[in-house]
Each structure stands twice: as structure tokens, then as C-alpha cells.
Specification:
The complex is a heterodimer of chains A (284) and B (286). Chain A is mainly alpha-helical. Chain A has two domains: 45 residues; 229 residues, MetI-like fold, CATH 1.10.3720.10. Chain A is built from ten helices and no strands. Chain A is globular. Chain B has 286 residues and is an all-alpha fold. Chain B has a single domain, classed as Orthogonal Bundle (MetI-like fold). In chain B, 75% of the residues lie in helices and 0% in strands. In chain B, helix 3 packs antiparallel against helix 8, helix 4 packs across helix 6 and helix 7 packs antiparallel against helix 8. The chains are: A mainly alpha (284), B mainly alpha (286). Chains A and B meet through helix 1, helix 3, helix 4, helix 5 and helix 6 of A and helix 1, helix 3, helix 4, helix 5 and helix 6 of B.
Chain lengths: 284, 286
């Protein structure tokens, strides 16, 4: 290796200055898009927000007023459906991996979860389409919830496994020493101890899938009406924002900004709040 | 003690069996996903064979399909994203892990994490009305720039973790010799971290390849291969997003699934490689 120490002190100081300023500059530059994106959403979204936005159906073109009420409800319904798919598999799968998953079977399951997590969300959407939409011959909220649930699985599994493993072994053994069966110790002592962290993971995952659009385009599709049936197409905030954003009408574009503001507040709010909150709950 | 030829089935057996069935559904779902994608795309594969990948015509009205423009658009837009996000992301990671110990650090880290939490469709909206007009209309370049913003947090977070995994004693030995921060970084940190950094970059690439909404909204959605970065283009994920719900024929649907399968294979390989590199440095998977 070249010997730096033969360089003059001035030259070394200069290089150090260049290095530090490059690092500072790139950090500052990386934060510019955040400020720009959030700034634009607030400036453009806030004026279009009003009470009707949360309670009314979308209005037809050139008709003033209207809102995203059905899409906001739709997003929550679809997210709830995805929790039905993602949470049991993720949590119980994670528990199994932590308690029994040392062998070959555990390796295969972990590997499958890794592969699943690297599949793009739109491909998961195709899976839900082929499995559910093509079989039922219509778009449905169920299919959308299924797709988002699959996206949740790897994250929840890994979080649960890691946090259950972090629970001190002594606690587990103390429970066994009292003569409590293994399964009861696992659920009532180990899982309960790890629960705060697992809950954080679940909330982060929910915040993430709330912002997903691609897998919903051809599963939950969209709807301009109030719909609470899960076997029919359902509106969601993200798909509605997308449709409004690419439309040529200024009024609809404004609604897209307003929808984005609501969505970002929900997603970022959950993420930041949960991360702040979890720092106090964690084991250290 | 009960004497029986068979072991009594206890609550513990039920517990491990039930949790195992949930755990086992993960590989089963993955297997089902891959099988269904292969079955659904077989019609397209039978019709066009391997020529599908190198053909560049895309005409749903006459049922003529080729994947090349989409593969081209996907790869080039992701490479543009890397060209921008790698220097910036590494800069941020060096700032967070090596340069500063101040209170600003956690705030900067949180802000970069926030970039990752903003939904893709919101980036797309911003891209349509702010970035795209600024860069001269929808094009490959706008797609790449939007992607670079979206993968920056991934590259920063993983690189930071990789830097932090480098033993502190290495830095201290360099510092004890009177090295400056740059010399310490170059001599003591960069070498051991290199493999992990490669992993972080490939992980960013994997994310860029599969990203759909924001790119669809700003890339122009035209299936042509143009050497100009300012020309509109199309990506694998975008064409699926745009045409899947309105597929005109069985063949059309089948080739769209085939595009999805191509995308799946590319991203799984890329992510697998990335995990390997990160694991080599930090000892655990990214």
C-alpha cells in the first residue's frame, strides 16, 4: 500500500477537508428530496383537505366537492384482511422458528421467507390475481388483502423469531421449573415478554402495506361507491391517489395531493411514533 | 406412570404441530406462487419461446409480444438510480457511522428512514408534478432519479450497519498512528467493510428493479429502446401495472405473467447475492 505518511501535512489536511465536505454535502443533499416531497405534499394537499374529503364519495369530473371517504375505509378494511392472513402465519411461524427451528426444516422455512421478502410486490399481486381473482372471476377486496398479507409474512416472521429469541433463557426455564407445560410457558411468559417488540414490528409492517399500490391494481381494483363486501372490488387510498394523479383534471390532481397528505400522515405518523415509543419498551 | 405402547399426545405436541403448520405454510405459499406463475405463463412461453426475451415488438392488438424494451428499461433505470444513490448513500452512512458523534446523528438517521416510509405512489405524484417538468418531461432519467431517492435509505441503512460491524480496534490503531479521519477510513474501515458495501449496493439494486408505482408514473411508458436518457421508456413492473387489469386476450395475460416471472427470477437472484455479501461482513443477514 502507498505510504500516506510521506505526504506533506498541508496536503493531508487538504484531503481531510475534501473528504469531510464531501460527506457533509452528500448527507445534506440526501435530505433535500425529503424536504421537497413533504413540503409539496403539505402545500398542495392542505388546501384541498376539508371535512367532506373524509366523508364523501368521489365526485364525477367537473362537479365540485366529493372526497375519498370510501377509499379511506377501504384501505382500513383491506389492511385488516391482510392482517388476518399475515399475522397468524407470521407470529406462529416466528414462534416455531425460535423454539424448534434449529434443524433442516427451520433452515428451509427461513430461506423461503427470505425469498418471499425479495419478491416485488407487483408479482405478489399477480399471484393473488391468479389464485383468487381468476378463480372467482371478479376483482375483490379479499384478493387485495391476501396479496398484502403475503407481503407482511416475512417481516412479521423474522421480527417474532428475533424477539422471542431475545427473551432470556432463564425466564423460560423458570417457568418450566414451576411445572408449567412448555406450550403455556411459550405463550404466556415468553411471547408476552416479547410482545411489545413484536407489536412494534406489526405496526411498522401495517404502515408499510398501507402505502402499497401495485398489488391492489388488479386485485382489489377500485370502486366509486361505498362497499363493505369483501368479495367485491373495493377502493383504497393508494389506488385512488394513483388514478387521480394520472388524470388530466386539475380538480382530481388536487384530490391526489390531499389524499397523499392523509396517507403520508398516517404512514409516517405510525412509523415515527412506533419507533419513538418502542425505544422505551425494548430491553435496552 | 402410564404404561402404553404409544406416547401420549400432550399439549406440547399440539403446540409444536400447530405452530409448525403455520411456519410450513411459508414455503408452501412460495412453492404455490412459483407453480402458478409458471402454469399461467406457459401459454406465452409455448407461443414465443426464448425469442420472447430478445424480441422488441410489443403489440397487444395483434398479439405480438417481446420483453426486451422492458428488460432494457428496468436495468437502465435501476443503474441510473445506483449511479446517484450509491455515492450519496455511502456519504450518509460514513457521516452517520464514522464522522459524527453529535446529537444531530439520530435526527439525520430518522429523516433518512422517513424517506423509506413514504409510499411509492406519493413519490410518483411528486414526480409527475414537480420532478418530471423540471427534468424535461417523462423519461428514463426521471424514473432513475425517483428510484435513486427511494433506494437511498436502503443503501444508507445497510452500509451504516456494515461500517458499525468493523471492529473498533482497527480504527483505534489507525488513529493511534496519527491518521486523519479519511486515512482511518481508507486504511482501517474500507477494506473490511467492502464486501458488505457491495451487498448494500446490490440490495439497493434489488429494490430498484422491483419498484413499480413511482416509476410507472414518470417513465413515460413507451416500449422502445432509445439510447437517449431523455426518451420515454418502460419497465417490467410498469407494463404489468398498466396492462394487467385490461389484458385483451389469454396470450396477453400469459405474457404479462411471464414478465412477472422474469422479474421474480432477476430480483430473487440479485437479493440472494446481496444477502450473501452483507452476511460475509456483519455475520447476519440483511
Amino acid at each position: 500500500m502507498e505510504n500516506n505518511w510521506t505526504q506533506g501535512l498541508g496536503q493531508r489536511k487538504l484531503i481531510e477537508k475534501i473528504f469531510l465536505s464531501a460527506v457533509f454535502a452528500s448527507t445534506a443533499l440526501a435530505l433535500v428530496p425529503l424536504v421537497l416531497v413533504l413540503g409539496y405534499i403539505f402545500i398542495k394537499g392542505a388546501p384541498a383537505l376539508n371535512f367532506n374529503f373524509f366523508t364523501q364519495l368521489p365526485a364525477p369530473v367537473n362537479e365540485p366537492g366529493g372526497g375519498m371517504g370510501n377509499a379511506i375505509i377501504g384501505t382500513f378494511i383491506i389492511v385488516a384482511l391482510s392482517c388476518l392472513v399475515g399475522l397468524p402465519i407470521g407470529i406462529f411461524g416466528g414462534i416455531w422458528l425460535a423454539l424448534y427451528g434449529q434443524g433442516k426444516r427451520g433452515f428451509i422455512i427461513r430461506y423461503a421467507a427470505d425469498v418471499l421478502s425479495s419478491i416485488p410486490s407487483i408479482v405478489i399481486g399477480i399471484f393473488a390475481y391468479v389464485l383468487i381473482v381468476a378463480t372467482m372471476k371478479r376483482f375483490s377486496a379479499m384478493a387485495g388483502g391476501f396479496a398484502l398479507g403475503i407481503i407482511m409474512i416475512p417481516t412479521i416472521t423474522r421480527t417474532t423469531e428475533e424477539l422471542v429469541k431475545m427473551v432470556p433463557r432463564s425466564l423460560y426455564e423458570a417457568g418450566l421449573a414451576l411445572g408449567i407445560p412448555k406450550w403455556k410457558v411459550s405463550l404466556k411468559i415468553v411471547l408476552r415478554t416479547a410482545w411489545a417488540g413484536i407489536f412494534t414490528g406489526i405496526m411498522l409492517s401495517v404502515a408499510r402495506i398501507m402505502g402499497e399500490t401495485a398489488p391492489l391494481l388488479f386485485t382489489a381494483f377500485n370502486s366509486m361507491y361505498w362497499n363493505f363486501r369483501i368479495d367485491e372490488p373495493m377502493a383504497s387510498m393508494t389506488v385512488q391517489i394513483y388514478n387521480y394523479a394520472i388524470s388530466p383534471f386539475a380538480d382530481w390532481n388536487a384530490k391526489a395531493w390531499a389524499g397523499s397528505l392523509v396517507l403520508v400522515m398516517l404512514v409516517l405518523g405510525t412509523t415515527v411514533f412506533v419507533k419513538k415509543f418502542s425505544q422505551r419498551v425494548y430491553y435496552g | 406412570m402410564r404404561l402404553s405402547r404409544f406416547k401420549r399426545i400432550t399439549g406440547d405436541d399440539w403446540f409444536s404441530a400447530i405452530t409448525f403448520s403455520f411456519a410450513a405454510s411459508i414455503p408452501l405459499l412460495l412453492f404455490l406462487l412459483i407453480c402458478l406463475l409458471i402454469i399461467k405463463s406457459s401459454l406465452g412461453f409455448k407461443t414465443f419461446g426464448f425469442g420472447f426475451i430478445v424480441s422488441s415488438s410489443w403489440d397487444p392488438l395483434n398479439d405480438v409480444y417481446g420483453a426486451l424494451p422492458f428488460i432494457y428499461g428496468t436495468i437502465i433505470s435501476s443503474l441510473i438510480a445506483l449511479a446517484i444513490a450509491v455515492p450519496l448513500g455511502l456519504g450518509c452512512a460514513i457521516f452517520l457511522a464514522e464522522v459524527t458523534q453529535s446529537k444531530v446523528k439520530e435526527q439525520v438517521a430518522t429523516m433518512i428512514d422517513m424517506l423509506a416510509a413514504i409510499p411509492s405512489v406519493v413519490y410518483g405524484l411528486w414526480g409527475i408534478f414537480v420532478l418530471s417538468p423540471f427534468l424535461g418531461g417523462p423519461s428514463l432519467l426521471v424514473g432513475g432519479v425517483i428510484l435513486s431517492i427511494m433506494i437511498l435509505p436502503t443503501i444508507t441503512a445497510i452500509s451504516r450497519e456494515v461500517f458499525q460491524a468493523v471492529p473498533h480496534s482497527l480504527r483505534e490503531s489507525a488513529l493511534a498512528l496519527g491518521a486523519t479521519k479519511w486515512e482511518t477510513f481508507k486504511l482501517a474501515v474500507f477494506g473490511p467493510a467492502l464486501s458488505g458495501l457491495v451487498g448494500a449496493i446490490i440490495l439497493g439494486l434489488g429494490r430498484a428493479l422491483g419498484e413499480t408505482m413511482a416509476v410507472t408514473m414518470v417513465i413515460g411508458n413507451r416500449a422502445n429502446i432509445s439510447p437517449s436518457l431523455f426518451a420515454p421508456a418502460y419497465t417490467l413492473a410498469s407494463v404489468i401495472a398498466n396492462e394487467f387489469a385490461e389484458a385483451t386476450s389469454e396470450v396477453n395475460l400469459s405474457v404479462l405473467v411471464e414478465l412477472g416471472l422474469i422479474l421474480l427470477v432477476i430480483t430473487v437472484i440479485v437479493n440472494g447475492a446481496a444477502r450473501f455479501f452483507v452476511w460475509k461482513t456483519t455475520g447476519h443477514k440483511a
